[in-house]
Amino acid sequence: MVTILFIFWTLGSIFITLNVFRPLAKRSNSSFQVILVSFVMSWLVGDLLPQWIILNTGIILLFSFSDILNQPLGWAGLLVHLSGWIILMLRLWIILYLPERLEHKMEEQLGVQWNNKYPRPLVPRNILEIDWECWFNPNTVFDDPRIEIIRDQVFYNEAGVQLKLDIYRPLNTKKKHPGILQIHGGAWITGSKRQASFLMTRMAARGWVCFSVSYRFSPDIIFPEHLIDVKRALRWIRNNAEEHGLDPDFIVTTGGSAGGHLAAMMALTQNRVEFQPGFEKMDTSIHGCVPIYGVFNFHDPFENQTPYPAKARVLKMLCGGTPKKQHDRYEQITPANWISGKAPPFLLIQGETDALVSTSETYSFWEALEAHKVPNSAFLSLPLVQHAFDILPSLTAQCIIPTIERYLIMLHENHLYNSGKK
User: Fold this and answer.
1) Domain tally, the chain
2) 82 belongs to a structural domain
3) Which of 169, 311, 346, 359 is the most exposed place for a label (fewest CB within 10 A)?
4) Helix or strand or coil: residue 161?
5) For residue 291, what is the DSSP state?
6) What's the pLDDT score for residue 330?
7) End-to-end CA distance of the chain
8) Residues 49 and 141 in one domain
9) Preceding peptide of 224 cis, ω within 30°
10) Is 387 noted as a catalytic residue in this protein?
């Protein structure tokens, strides 16, 4: 029995290690459940590697109480596990060098102003500079003495529907600060507004007022109700700007996955009356957008050449049917259809080993932005980075989030300069 368990555990470790570098579930034929398991295992092992190694070490110690390690099979299995850990550690080494690669990409796309005007934020340059405490205990991000967090502020309460947001803000709210509207992911059917807390706390410490909002889920509602909910949050944010020290004239949106899609829609449908019923005259302008592993393609999953049954299943709940039955709704939900020369700047971020969203999907949206010459925009494709990399303050997040910080600061500096405030 012990031998069977040891073999099963070893083969499972091989599968899990390979899955980190190349998701083994295929979008074209895997079920939603299989894709979800592939993503979760890749995310947990890749971004929580120290915890994974500690867990495996404990399991080895348990096996050491048997005679398995006195057999050739036991030593062979142990060698396999050690080899897997070394391979995973090489991934961390690649991630440590990612900030340098991102700097080059941003300078190529945004010009020399990226380096000349905005100082580089601090990122870990070696193992000793990693914030290990934050990595092992993500809750430490909430303990920053420079900020305060206000939970569960109701921004919409009508007809039995109550929606809430969290506020991350600097302690000094006497002057006007730039703002961030954060929209969580979860395939439009689930999720928590506590996602992206790492980015929110860091930006609040830099003097930004950040709002992480909730919205209703499908299948209880269909699009565009999700977008309307987020615009209701923006209405509340602007109406309460003075109380929270927010500059209502500069608000950017960000979000991951489904939240990245809604963030893009917020930026591209500013002041569109069809998406703000009952508050048509409210200013819903947005001054920049950072969709992280956002969803931009809503038609390909239904095509025979590019089938994606798991995604198609979610989209049918989101839109109330297929593109054939809900053609106008699918046109309405596609961000690329709303791009114009007046669109605010975008920073698109996509992991190359994302199990849920393909790089080509984000790249196609990037090409649409380029075709419309949307200024001060950039696209970052990240090697060996999985979906949801920013949810926890792992090494991956510690190496990527500073680039987002710097980009947002750049947009705000440009806003101050163009408005004559600097």
Assistant:
1) 2
2) yes
3) 359
4) strand
5) E
6) 96
7) 72
8) no
9) yes
10) yes
Give the number of other Cβ atoms within 10 Å of residue 286's Cβ.
22
Contact 277, 240 (CB under 8 A): no
Pick from 256, 334, 336, 255: nearest CA to 302: 334
Residue 380 near residue 396 (C-beta atoms within 8 A): no
Torsion angle (degrees, nearest 10) of CA 37, 40, 42, 47: -170
Please write the tens of the pLDDT for every residue from 339-385.
998 999 999 999 999 999 999 999 999 999 999 999 999 999 999 99
Using one digit for the tens of pLDDT, what is the confidence trace for 15-58?
999 999 988 888 777 888 888 889 999 999 999 988 888 988 88
| pLDDT one-digit tens code per residue, 77-124 | 888 888 888 999 899 899 999 999 999 999 999 987 787 666 666 788
- Report residue 174's pLDDT band, with 50, 70 and 90 as the boundaries: confident
Does residue 40 fall inside a structural domain?
yes
Residues spanned by the domain of 59 = 2-95
Amino acid at 233: A
- State the average pLDDT over residues 208-212: 97
Residue 322 domain-assigned (yes or no): no
How many residues comprise the chain? 422
pLDDT tens digits, residue range 242-278? Answer: 999 999 999 999 999 999 999 999 999 999 999 999 9
Q: Is residue 104 part of a domain?
A: no
Contacts of residue 41, defined as CB under 8 A and 6 or more positions apart, other chains included, come to: 16, 19
- The DSSP element (H or E) to which 49 belongs, if any, is helix 49-64
Strand-pairing partners, residue 251, are 179
Q: Catalytic: 144?
A: no
pTM of the model: 0.94
- Both structure tokens of 140: 């430490």
Same domain, 75 and 140: no
Catalytic residue (one of 47, 229, 247, 354):
354
Rg over alpha carbons for the chain, rounded to the nearest Å, is: 23
Domain of 410, CATH number, reads 3.40.50.1820
Catalytic residue at 81? Answer: no
Counts for the chain of helices (H) and strands (E), in that order? 14, 8
Q: Band of the pLDDT at 145, cuts 50, 70, 90?
A: very high
The one catalytic residue in 387, 390, 412, 415 is 387
Same domain? For 244 and 142 the reply is: yes
